[in-house]
Amino acid sequence: MQPILELTNISKRFPGVQALQNVRFDVLPGEVHALIGENGAGKSTLIKIISGVYKPDEGTLRLDGQERPPFSNPREAQAAGIATIYQELSLYPELSAAENIFMGHAPRTRFGAVDWGRMRREARELLASLEIHDLDVNRKIGTLSVGNRQRIEIAKALSLNARILVMDEPTAALTEADVEQLFRIVRLLQERGVAIIYISHRLQEIFTLADRVTVLRDGEYVATRRVTETSEPELISMMVGRTVDDLFPKLPAEIGEPLLEVRDLWRRPYTLGVNLTVRAGEIVGLAGLIGSGRSELAQTIFGIMPAQSGQILIEGKPVRIRHPGDAMRLGIAYVPEERGSQGLIRQMTIRQNISLAVLRALTRGPFIDRQGEKSLAERMIDTLNIRAYSTNQIVNKLSGGNQQKVVVGKWLASQPRILIMDEPTRGIDVGAKAEVHRLMSQLAQQGMAILMISSEMPEILGMSDRVVVMREGRVVGEFSREEATQEKVATAMMSVENGASDAAELAVDGVQTGAKGR
Amino acid sequence: MKKLLVSLILLAMLVAPLAAVLPAKAQDDLPTNPLACPWEEEEAAEAEEGEEAEATEEPMEYNGGQPVNPPDLKGKPIRVLDLPKLIGIAYFAATTKGLNEAAEELGNVTIITDAPTEANVDDQITFIENYVTQGIDVIAFASNDPVAISPALRRALQAGVHVIGFDADSEPDAREWFVNQATFNGMAKALIDSMVEEVGEDANVAIVTSSLTAPNQNRWISEMLAYAEKCYPNLNFLETVPSEEDQQLAFQRAQELVNKYGEELDGIFAMSSVAGPGVADALTQMGVCDQTISVGISTPNQMRPFIKNGCAPKVVLWNPIDLGYATTYVIRAVVDGELVPGDTEVEAGRLGTLPVINGSEILLGPPTVFTVDNIDDFDF
Amino acid sequence: MAATSKAYKSQTVESGFSLRSLTHLLGSQEFILLMSILALSLVVYSDNPRFGTERNLLNILSNASYIAVGAIGMSMVIITGNIDVSVGSLIGVLATIAGQLAVHDYPIWMAWTAPILAAMVVEGFIGFLVAYLRIPAIVVTLGMMSILKGGLILATGGAWIYDIPQEFFLAQRQPYGIPMPIYFMVTLVILAALWMHYSPTGRAIYAVGGNAEAARLSGISEKRTLMTVFILHGFMIGVAGLLFATQFTTIQSTVPPGLELMIITAAVVGGVSILGGSGTVIGAMLGAILIRVIQSGMIFLNVSAYWLQAVQGILILLTVLADILRRRRQAASIGK
Amino acid sequence: MSTREAQREPSEWSLTLREFFLGQEGVLVVFLVIAVVVLAFTSQNFLTSKNLLNQARLMTEVGLLALPMTYIIITGGIDLSVGSIFGFSAVMLGWLWQEQGFPLEVAIVASIVIGTLAGLFNALFIVYVRVPPIIMTLATLALYRGLAYGVSQARSARGYPEWFFRFGQEDTFGIPTQIWFFIVASIITWIVLARTPFGRGLYAIGNNVTGARFSGIPVDRYLLVIYTFSGFMAGLAGFLFTSRVSTTRADSGTGMELDVIAAVVLGGTSIMGGRGTIPGTILGLVLIQLLKNGLSLSGVKGDATIVVIGSVLILSILINNFLQRRFAQA
Question: What residues in chain D have their Cβ under 8 A from chain A's Cβ atoms?
């Protein structure tokens, strides 16, 4: 079969970096072609070339076998039938769902005006084709949940009648259930003959979904394989250029006294009477769907959204935490979910980021001790194996994995006794992931209490001494390492029967509100 | 709790100013000295011959300042800084014209006009400092604030620069002489008399002033109120509203006053050269000139259409060109040593001899009232 | 059975939809503004019935017109996340240009169109600096404000313009008893509102302000959109300048003090988010009218002249707070 | 990115120097040198200590306001009400002393306190009600100016005793007294911004407020402090201004906010937040003042001068953008 899109000898250079060197890539109609590689391997650059954001320095592009000049802007790529769903959702919070779907290609009336009626109708139809019926297309995006926003993103790509759909880590922010739905959609598209370029760090997904997989490393093409003819270890070794033995090397640690206890903690509407204990040397995995209130619980403990009622005990002593400063003084550190917006000040240097949480301790008199700050940063770069040429490098220019290590370094610098890690390995490559896991193990061995929030089941099962499951703001299950299995945890997370009754409750609520409104 | 606090603060903020609802008159606190009423004038004129000394009281001692060791420039060419309140309005364009006219006549005076684009005393101070440093011979100023400008002027005097005021004075000791276009009570009398001639003495009038902080305007208003109280006790002052130096705002204020008082409102005093056309324009465009007219201070060219259409039948002003003209002559006389403290009059070219009043002021003369009969004789 | 339930369902969806659009309308900043204007007018009217005369209301609207027209363009600029503080100076310059052409016996149509073209050129230049050379708009317009203000005096020496031919005074005309500026305001606001709602470029303005990166990826050219916005803004400022210039029998060759703040305030009070991405021109027009109603109402209520500004400041603050609290409450209620 | 870029690590000092010259400060220094040389040739009165000290005296009030404004703009905020607070607290000084009969010393302190409270009022709404700073201060710009008119009934207070003028009109240790205030304030604000956790926190807030919050930086408290500080400095400047011009007027400081912002922005502080320095702001201030003065001394009139200043503002940012794009990548 003829590839619908074929790129050969693609090279792209940025100031100081050779992002891509002689890369080739092709995709057939109705095929899911996965693109993998460590962060910084050049995947993002490649898809930005495909979607017209960047222009390659060299290389040829063939569309349906016809050679053509590379796209010089996203509109050209769109016109050629290429749609892209980016990793970071690119929506307009102040505009309605319908408009978000059709921004840039809204249906027009014959006078050239935007046809709002048709736009809403088509938006509803598109969502219906994704089996989404309960989403009001007039709602502002800013008021929608993350999961729904992602669906709007997909609908947006579909609205372009794309022949080639580029998905850049579509599952990074999704839970297992949402992932299932996404896969259904992808297969549906595949049947319609749409070619899909799929980027993910989750190798499992690739084996479930993809037909072929292409590996990039350090901006260079490594290989293309049929998924039926390859294996996970082979792909990993191709990606990192070495073999990684154990992805989840949880080392045994001595489990001590409870360091953090949470009793009947309330912070409406996300945290509803939570009880939780984390002991010294223990890693507690906090599982749950998106929106189940895990991050919010962490933020309540850390004082970003202070608790309304309930108790937090540190080493058995009740404490009050009203803002992050309080939490930090008590030895709590929080590695947040969103690296870019919450974890880092990306425009600042590695040194400044690492010292940010401990500035007050790093002072000589009223002034920042610059030498101390620098040696701290150097120490962390060493300990965490951060790949950077200087402590003065701007964090934004590091790869995702190294950025995450900087966040971790920042919080390790505060020498916490209780470490909360929210999605510690989301969106980082396999090598860095293993390093983060190894580090967590070591920290636990040193007697730190770790609360790990993760949406990746293998990570939860592999790393946790104990798994706590949350649903709708409440703790709904707790399993020891031995008894935790994928099925048990997943069932607790989704809890089918209960979920159905909840949905019914919601529906009743809706009717009542409607009646009141009338 | 927080919300309660915020709403309390807001409430307090709301109530405080509303509690202070008082009709503003925009006077100042200085003593007033109303002139004789029109019907007293004749008696006064008769009495004038014999009792002049008594009527004008004791001539005041010279109370101006003197430059420290000014260079002797007698008969030599001099450079004069013309520093009006602001540039960009017709009135000060006219004074500048007058200054230059006299300078041409004299031949040995160069006028440099420079001033802020907004009536801002702080900028004026900067200009003074810069020009003193640069080495100017004379500063002729019209101050935006009589007190604020004084320290800078005193420094100029100390640097040996001659300092002469016109139009708007400083503190007396911060300048040598002040060329006074018209006495405040003289202006007040002319304005009130003009208004009464148009609307009668049982009338309701309002005032559109420039800025509430403008010293000349506040002084005029004080004198006007005093004079009206003395001579026309039935003239009812409704209120005074500010219009800044903004034509649009004056226009709007006049509309609001007319709409608010309707036919009760007989006349509006427009107290600045910017407010004048603004108010008259509003009355004209509203078509209410048969009920409400305006009497104001402004220049003839911009008021000509309104004088002719009867919406502003009387405009009171001295001749700003003459003011500038006289200022240049005073400057020359001071530099040449012909006007020294204690003198009682000074020669001013085509204007003849001007008298010295209040110790260190030179009076241009009585204000002119422009009416439909004489308006075409003026072009400035 | 299934069919009936389906029919029932669709029915509820429909009624729910209209209900929602009603609550949407009632909760909008435009509605709050309209209510504030009416409430304030009623308070003033009950104190002094003369406030309600046709003439006074027309005066208020007429005086709000050029502010509202200026605020249309300003809203667009603010929605894209930029700002223009040079508009006051620009309007001063435009009035002078129009007046000079009129007194020097150029045809009247030229005196009317020249300021509009000039404004489009100046704003286009500003747009170029902002969109293509990436200088923050506040820097460009702050600099431009100085340049225009100084340049105006430099060129004219501050002489006033008078003896302008009568037909020049467009804003003084009153077809069917209604002042001309009101026609301009209403027409331009409606056109701009339609354009911003229905034209792809109009929607692109919101896209660029809401998420510039996403707009770029949707194939919307940020640069072109910004250029369009600034040139349109120039057009609106040009019309505002024309209305301003033709209102008065004499034209001051100076910059009207504080005009830029007035126009920005109208837009902001009108609910245009200074953070970009939201707001409507109808809100901006209502904002302009509200400001004038406040100004005028205070005179009718006998508020002391000394306290006028303070009361104005408080009322503006209250309006803005109401907008912010409304947004907060909406977000909270939806979040549940 | 990888080992092939493991080049020699530049020393802290050379890095700072490089940043300085490629940053706005470098552009400003070049502009300043050019301006001084040209102006010194065109007017022999320009480069005299007397003139320069006098200019510094005139610059003080805007300077005092520009320091906190730098902080505020670094955090991505803005304070448009400074001119009004300045006028308001000056008016309160005169009013308390003359109308209310307080001793002048008390009135001075009280006026500065009132300025501080006015700043605090802005801060409370910005921080706790989350009103965007530009909107809040736009409203209080009108409000405080209105209060100045209302409280004083537009009357100016004058006739201060001789000692009062020591602050604004006389010299201390050979230079105008108020310059000492500015020098001390500059040094303190500079060090605080460059060297303390507080200063670092401000940059963090300006670059990413969520990130700052998640790092345990007390964002609310910092913002509260800087807006209040802005009010305090406006109060102080109002007092020095009163002493310099020996009267208080309800309209003093009108439009001053734009002068202040122009100086700060010219000094390289990014209006988007996250970038800027005190030395940059001071350079911006000095450049504007010297241009005003020098051009005036060379016979250029005021209107032409503001045209030049507007052009310099646009041009310098343009050049800086160009340099950043050209060299900062490497």
Answer: 1-2, 5-7, 9-10, 12, 15, 191, 195-197, 200-201, 203-204, 207-208, 210-218, 274-275, 329-330
Dist CA C289 CA D134 (whole Å): 21
| Cβ count within 10 A of residue D318 | 18
**Record: contact A91-C214, CB cut-off 8 A:** yes
pLDDT digits (tens, 9 = 90+) for C30-88: 888 888 889 888 888 888 888 888 888 998 999 899 999 999 999 999 988 888 989 98
Which two structure tokens, joined as six digits, stand for A278?
């984390």
Interface test with D, best of A218, A356, A396, A403 (most D CBs within 10 A): A356
Which chain A residues have a beta carbon less than 8 Å from that of C204?
A: 103-104
Query: What residues have CB less than 8 Å from C63, skipping those under 6 apart?
Result: B248, B251, B252, B255, C292
Count of domains observed in chain C? 1
HSE (side-chain half, CA atoms, 13 Å) at D114: 26
CA D210 – CA D206 distance, rounded (Å):
10
pTM listed for this prediction: 0.82
Report the CATH number at residue C82. Answer: 1.10.3470
Domain B78-181+319-364's class? Answer: alpha beta
Q: Which residue has the tokens 């907008």?
A: C323
Q: Computed from CA positions of residues D176, D181, D184, D189, in that sequence, does the dihedral angle turn out positive or negative?
A: negative
Residue in A94, A127, A139, A152 to test binding to C, most C beta-carbons within 10 Å:
A94
Beta-bridge partner residues of A263:
A311
**Domain D62-328 grouped into CATH 1.10.3470:** yes
A344 touches chain D (CB under 8 A): yes
Domain interval for residue C232: 60-301+308-316
Residues of D in Cβ contact (< 8 Å) with B115: 302
Residue D52 buriedness (CB in 10 A; 0-12 / 13-18 / 19+): middle
Share of chain C above pLDDT 70, in %: 89
- In the CATH scheme, what architecture does the domain B184-317 have? 3-Layer(aba) Sandwich (3.40)
C330 is a domain residue: no
pLDDT band at D107 (very low <50, low <70, confident <90, very high): very high
CA distance A159 to A105: 9
Q: Is C304 in contact with B13 (Cβ distance < 8 A)?
A: no
- Please write down the long-range contacts of D322-326, taking CB distance under 8 Å and 24 or more positions apart: D323/D22, D323/D26, D323/D27, D324/D22
ipTM of predicted complex:
0.79
Residues in chain B with pLDDT < 70?
1-29, 40-59
Name the minimum distance, in Å, from the CA of C277 to any CA of chain D: 15
Record the tokens describing residue B259, joined without a space: 């709409």
How far C18 CA lies from chain D's nearest CA (Å)?
32
CB-CB contact of B204 with B238 (8 Å): yes
Phi, psi of C152 (to 5 degrees): -65, -50
